[in-house]
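Quick one:
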Amino acid sequence: MNFARISRSRAWFAVCGLLSLSSLPLHAALLVYEGFNGYTGTNLAGQTPNGNTVGLDTSVGYYDGAASPRTAGFSLQTTGLTLGSLATSGGALAFATGTNVMGADIDIGATAYTGTLWNSYLVNISFKGTSVSGEGAVLRVGAMPSDSNNSHFNSWADSRNGSPNIAVGYGSTGTDGSDKLTNGTTYIIISKFTRVGQSVSPTTPGVATQWALDAAQFAAFLSAGGDEAALNSVTVTGMSTNTTTSSSTNIFSSAMAFGLVTVNDVGVFDEIRYGSDLASVTPSTIPEPAAAALLSALAALGLCSARRRPRTA
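Output:
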């Protein structure tokens, strides 16, 4: 028996297997995921996060936490938002005019997350409220979905500060960007929050950065490498930044909940992700450029499919 030949064969099978896996979205750093898939009916309130979610408490139903529930304006739809090659699961959450608040408890284990927190979600706003202030659409984290005064990691697709722009902030008051989303267009909102769960100061501030990309911009981001350098090099629809130097820390833990808040806007939320790196919140259904190039080269050479003919003598 030729053990050297067997070892080489096994090595090639291992390499080819790993290359095949590189075409799948990797979620090793994914902390929370909700794609609104697998629920029943159109009313999400009271339904518990299901097996299609990640990092959510499956024993507590969706709620708002206020004395007067404000969940009626949200409705499940079976068709989800899509954005090019972004991995999606089907289903979405639509919101109607009025004041709507709803979310779910986070469950990422006993240890709070510390470090840089990345967040993304899809949104398509078809109508924005016309009042001076107080209206808009935001994804946030707090003790409960309705906890507006102590909320963290706010990512506004439509600011509630009187300008229909995107905005980002560690607390309930964020910083508006100079750009707004176009009605009827699907965007991915990507946010980065540094020093989460860590002390901050004037010399070591926490920095929040937000980017809004449409489908063409997201494709360009992936083609440029899909990393933070690519995110900062491609054209985006809008961008905003916010810093915190408060002595208090912003916590992302199982004691928190994420919340969706909309006031008089109409649209759809989908594909909510929190993760420890950019790749975990922007998974693609196609290989990253480097992996795709290597797979193409191997396919051309036939290395993964060629077989040796058995010896006849």
